[in-house]
Structures are given as C-alpha cells and as structure tokens.
Amino acid sequence: MQQQNRKQFLIQVSFIEAALAGILAAFRKFDLILGASLGLVMAAYNFYSLLSHLNREDKTSSTPQKDSMRKMTARFILRYVILAIVFVGLIQLGTWHLFGFMIGFGTVYGVLFLDYLRRVKKARQALKIS
C-alpha cells in the first residue's frame, strides 16, 4: 500500500469513527461508543498490519525462505492473539461493548468493500471508453 493510500485509509477510518460516535452519542449509548471505537481501531490495525506484512514479504523475494515464512506466520498468529485478547476482554465488560465492537469492526470492512466496488466500476468504465 502506498503512503498516500495509507493516509487516505486512516483519514477515512477517522471520519467513520467520528460519525459513528456521534450517532451513538445521540442515543446515549456510551458503552457502544467505547466498543465501536475499539472495533474501528482494531479493524484498522488488522487491515494495516495484514497489508504491511504481505507487501513486505512480496518485496523480499518471489520464493519465500524458511526463516521468512516463520516470521510471517508469527506475525499472523500475533495479530490473531491480539484480536482474541481484545474480544475476550470485551466479553468480560458486557454485551453492549461487544456489540459496539462488532459494529465498529464491520463498519471498516464495509467501507473497504464499498471502496472496492467503486474502484471496479471506475476500471470497467475506463475499459469501455478505451
């Protein structure tokens, strides 16, 4: 992911978080706000780290070495362990925190999916024009 795309992604996540927090604050669901904010942060971390690791491995070589594969596997496991710890912590806090987390986490991937559909549509239109 290029530097410009990273900045754009983080800006989009910030706007999503602000909008979602504003909507939930209107209903006075502060437990949901905390959970949704944590979900947005974890989704951004998950997506960003996944792309960073894959780009790093892609740049190093076309045929990964054993040591490189071990590091990549360790990073994937670490990412899922962090997500599991957050998830278990939210279960301990209560259902509203967990529900908010799922809303926040899902919102980021929903926006990414819509952005993907927009890019596909733009690429198809560019092919039709050519």
From TrEMBL:
UniProt-listed Pfam families:
ATP-synt_I (PF03899)
Q: Name one GO cellular component term.
A: plasma membrane
Q: Where in the cell is it found?
A: Cell membrane
Enumerate the InterPro entries for this protein.
Answer: ATP_synth_I
Task: Reply yes or no: does the keyword Chloroplast apply.
Answer: no
Instruction: Write the signal peptide boundaries.
Output: none
Q: Tell me the keywords, alphabetical order.
A: Cell membrane, Membrane, Transmembrane, Transmembrane helix
The answer to keyword Transmembrane applying to this record is yes
How is this protein named in the record? ATP synthase subunit I
UniProt organism field: Candidatus Abzuiibacterium crystallinum
